Amino acid sequence: MENSVIISIEKLVKQFPMGQGVFTALNEIDLTVQKGEFSGLIGPSGSGKTTLLNIVGSLDAPTRGEATVLGQPISKLGPREAARLRKENLGFIFQSYNLLQVHTVYENVEFPLLLLNIQAAERRKMVMDALEWVGLTSKEKSKPPQLSGGECQRVAIARAMVKRPSLVLADEPTANLDAANSHHILQTMVKLNEELGTTFLFATHDEKVISYLRRKIYLLDGKIDKIEHVAVNDTVPS
Amino acid sequence: MIRFLIKGLIRDKSRSALPIIVVAIGVMLTVFMHAYIAGIMGDTIEMNARFSEGHMKVTTRAYAAEIDQVPNDLAILEADGLVSKLENQFAGVSWASRIKFGGLIDAPDENGETKAQGPAMGIGIDLLSTESEEPARLNLTKSLVRGQMPRQSGEVLISDHFATKLGVNIGDPVTLIGSTMEGGMSMYNFTVAGTLSFGMEAMDRGTIIADLTDVGKALQMEGAAGEILGFLPDGFYDHEEAVKMAEAFNAGYSGDQDEYAPQMVALGQQEKMSFYVELSEVWLYYISLIFIIAMSLVLWNAGLLGGLRRYGEVGIRLAMGEEKRHVYVTMIWESVFIGLAGSVVGTGIGLFCAWLLQKYGLDISGMMEGSSVMMPSVIRARITPPDLWLGFFPGLLSTVIGTMLSGIGIFKRQTARLFKELEA
């Protein structure tokens, strides 16, 4: 059972300097996420969900306490180790897609594999697999400006998933999408979660995203307010 | 990975073409301005060289000691022999014998009686031989106001202002009254072939130019020359080169105690010109330095802004797991490429523009009508060796330093902060 824990957070505190004092964004957080979960941090703006996601993603370090991700204590990672953790094990999906605009869909998805020095032939297979997951094989030569918002976010998902990471962190992934595209994106992610066993952790306050989550972790003023578990059959794929 | 970065660089025009154009323009201006300033500074030196001092000047030691008095009694005898020797010793250098003289010009009326007289400053040069470079060197053909260039012995050119003052016309006789080399009185008749405008008050006031042989006859200095002027092959004064030649020539006479032995002096060593040569070098140095610093700041800023503009891309690459160090190194390599490409293109265009201005010049004579300031009427640039590498300081160094600073600025931010701003 111990091996199935992918994120372990203990008494985590994150403070930011503010004027003469400090602002406490996260206050004594304790949380565990199991492998294969499809869970989300839910809360209004300023509740600390993005800060927590950043710490889990080794983009930031805690002020006190510890966040252990895939067995690696974030507070003890140097820049190089943190980069390696992201490169090998983590995938990121952003609100505004953040694709490299001058590169094609194929090249955007290929980029994480270049960092892993994967051979060209294998790389091509992995990229095409990822594009097939998100239904964009026909758009491999297109560039982001030629795509719709939904298609861009699907490219971002393919980019996050192409290296088959253990954990995908998605920060408000549907904030710039309409309802139909949001559901399509979320269904894609649910499918990848189920088929590949990838763990997804969201930061969101979007009801559409919340409706898909199987574990809802509510944050309020930097603390965990409540956690809800949803049975697999109760999720709402439309 | 390298191919991926190159693709991005080539496709993103704001990352490649635009910065290369900005760097190229900055470098082009630096190179062109340096050549232009060198040309302006050099023009005054060249004008003095052509009319009076040469790049190198050979006289007797005794003549040099009293050069301000133009002591033709101390002139070089058998000047042609010395010119041949100089031509053998310094291949490519053009040597020209000249006699400077002073005297009175007498203009007679139709009865042969004096109509008008005036003091004149004269120069005897090789006007008549076909291979002579002297008329072109003094720009005489273009300076003609009336008449034509002398075609035979006994003809003379006279400044137009002087001719008007004396009331002489083309074809009129004038008499030079002066002193011979031996100190006796001389009188020699010339026919006015043409009148000149030098654009310089000092020369327009009363200058006559006659063939060297005629002046030799008039002053009983046949075969002699007051001064032998040397002009470097590319037509521009090179102080180090001229000094080296002067030292080499003078070394051949170091054991000779004869006060009539020849001695060579570089233009920058001559009392009248040394200050100006030094001044122009200092001015060129400081003006160029100021311009390079100003252009460096502009291109430094361009590099800085170019780097900062890539905030978002840097954030994405870090999120994908690329190490900060690797991102930083690739940004610097890109800026090296941009700086190098821009510097090469800018230097090429700058040199081409400078070459055009050096070859064809910019005629500003129309703007100088009535001006009494002694300055050239055609502005020319001058390409010098520093023009080949000067532009690389602002072009390459500033661009790279700007990128390095922007990279440090980006990476000093916490990675998470980068993402927050990336999302904004």
Write the layout of secondary structure elements.
The complex is a heterodimer of chains A (238) and B (424).
Chain A (H helix, E strand, L loop, with lengths): L4 E14 L2 E14 L3 E5 L6 H8 L7 E6 L2 E2 L5 H11 E4 L11 H11 L4 H14 L15 H13 L5 E5 L7 H18 L2 E6 L2 H6 L2 E6 L2 E7 L9
Parallel strand pairs in A: 3-8, 3-9, 6-7, 7-8
Antiparallel strand pairs in A: 1-2, 1-4, 4-5, 9-10
Chain B lengths: L1 H10 L5 H37 L2 E5 H5 L13 H11 L4 E15 L5 E12 L8 H4 L2 H4 E4 L7 E5 H7 L6 E7 L5 E12 L4 H4 L2 E5 H7 L8 E5 L7 H13 L10 E5 L4 H38 L2 H9 L4 H37 L1 E2 L14 E2 L6 H4 L2 H21 L2 H9 L1
Parallel strand pairs in B: 3-8, 5-7
Antiparallel strand pairs in B: 1-9, 1-10, 2-3, 2-6, 2-9, 4-7, 5-8, 6-7, 11-12
Helix pairs in contact in B: 2-11, 2-13, 2-15, 11-15, 12-16, 13-15
Characterize the structure shown.
The complex is a heterodimer of chains A (238) and B (424). Chain A is α/β, with parallel strands linked by helices and 238 residues long. Chain A has one domain: Rossmann fold. Chain A has helices spanning 49-56, 79-89, 105-115, 120-133, 149-161, 179-196, 207-212; strands spanning 5-18, 21-34, 38-42, 64-69, 72-73, 90-93, 167-171, 199-204, 215-220, 223-229. Chain A has a six-stranded mixed beta sheet. The mean pLDDT of chain A is 89. By secondary structure, chain B is α+β, with helices and mostly antiparallel strands. Chain B has two domains: 2-46 and 276-423, no CATH class; 56-231, no CATH class. Chain B is built from 16 helices and twelve strands. Chain B has a six-stranded mixed barrel. Chain B has a two-stranded antiparallel ribbon with strand order 11-12. In chain B, helix 2 (17-53) runs antiparallel to helix 11 (271-308). Chain B is elongated and about 105 Å long. Chain B starts with a helix and ends with a helix. Chains A and B meet through helix 1, helix 2 and helix 3 of A and helix 1, helix 12 and helix 16 of B.
